[in-house]
Amino acid sequence: AVLVESLLVFTVVLSVHAVVWDRFSWCAVALAVQAFYVQFKWDRLLQLGSAVFQFRGAANSGLLPASMVIPLLGVVMKERCRAAGIVYFERFGIVVASTGMLLALFLSVLAVGITKPVPTNTCILTGIAGSVIIYTMKHSLTVSEVIEVLEVLLIFVYLSMILLYLLPRCFTPGEALLVLGGVSFVLNQLIKRSLNVIEGRGDPIDFFLLVAVIGVVLLGLFFTVLFTFMDSGTWISSMFFHMMTAVLGLGVIMPWLYRLIQRNPLFWLLQFLFQTQTRLYLLGYWTFLAASACGVVFYQNAKRSSESKKHQASTITRKYFHFIVVATYVPGLIYDRQLLYIAAVLCLAVFIFLEYIRYFRIKPFGQTLRHLLSLFLDERDSGPLILTHIYLLLGMSLPVWLFPRSCAPKGTLPGAGALVPYSGVLAVGVGDTIASVFGSTMGEIKWPGTKKTFEGTMTAIFAQIIAVALILIFDSSVNLNSSYAWILASVSLVSLLEAYTTQIDNLLLPLYLQIMLMA
């Protein structure tokens, strides 16, 4: 299964390399080769329990698929912005690619360093790949860009040491690279933009995303440290939690956002949300869907009898939420992507805040949330945090957030790139859902080395092709320019990756589909 997963990732890397064919795509190929070998060292460390931190069990290290996401995103973003003639974002794509490669190299060096006896061949391979990448960076990046890349690496090292120690068994090494690498990059961007504020420069919705993500992460770190010294389950601690949340929100996050957007954040947000009649309709519709999702949770818990406390929700039941999320995102993508962008940021902040309340047992809702959500746990929620619903939201939202709007003057990219914002809907909302439902109910032929079925994967590919046809009918901004073969190949590759990967597919699949469509 690991070999097939690696083969699929190599196919994506070589596909991007064939389209781009520059020094950075060659570096991506070198990085993929060394990550393939180092991945087996990480897997061995996890099996022996010799890794530095406690990682999530029942999964391989996932180093290769995770290592390639950020570099490939940077490479395809650079190429798209170069074609559009937007030099600033072309340079930004180069910084993203370089940062992703350096973070992946750091994890590789860490694995090689703690493996006993020292794997000589892997050390040589990692050294060669690292030399090629650093040589390319030396001749491609300015001094300020090199400093920016090193800043992200420094933040990543410190953040990894803190969060992987505080949150054992929540991530595989690959998931930690993706999640913590992304947070480190966002934090560095926020610091950089806060120190260089120019009035009227930058889109407020981008600042809103940066401040919201870093705000909830800092909030979690603050309370994690605080509640190591006091019991979080008492009423006094709970009142202190709510009071300090208000103080940090109104005293730190709001002024920070005010400095960036140069206006009152609350007034700006209210004006933005209620700007048009379409937005009012969408907000009302989304409120109804949110109430429906809560209704599913309460109904499933009501079915749990006192004799079956260990009862867990079935795969099909959990996929109800995937259908609800698809119904949420598709109208937003068609009618108002900016509103969807902001609504997804707000929803992410609420999800993470509710997870803090559940994790710390904050009264009056902490214990209730623990009871309600325990029904929907699966083997991937082996750590103290429940992250699968947050990963689902991230998987659907990242293609919207990472869409290079400045390099798409007409609001959409040409060819297959027009489907980039729909990557989450196609890969997770349609493909993963259909594969799980049909595979678990009608699947008989299993893929070698996995529990996934041939029928589920084929049905997922077919369903995504139908979804693309429906998008073409209902979204007039999408024009594929006869790039149907590339779309079919992209969808097929990602569907096969879903069958073989043991990483969090909600997070990984949309990013790989986005990379393929942008290429």
UniProtKB/TrEMBL annotation:
UniProt keyword annotations, A-Z: Endoplasmic reticulum, Kinase, Membrane, Transferase, Transmembrane, Transmembrane helix
Cellular compartment(s): Endoplasmic reticulum membrane
Major site of localization recorded for this protein: endoplasmic reticulum
GO cellular component, one term: endoplasmic reticulum membrane
Ranges in a coiled coil: none
Membrane topology of this protein: Multi-pass membrane protein
Listed GO biological process terms: dolichyl monophosphate biosynthetic process
Bilayer-crossing regions: 7-37, 57-76, 88-112, 118-137, 149-167, 207-227, 239-258, 278-299, 320-335, 341-361, 382-402, 422-442, 454-474, 486-513
Enzyme class, broadest EC rank: transferase
Top-level lineage group: Eukaryota
MF terms in GO: dolichol kinase activity
EC number: 2.7.1.108
Family per record: Belongs to the polyprenol kinase family.
Protein name: dolichol kinase
Taxonomic source organism: Erythrocercus mccallii
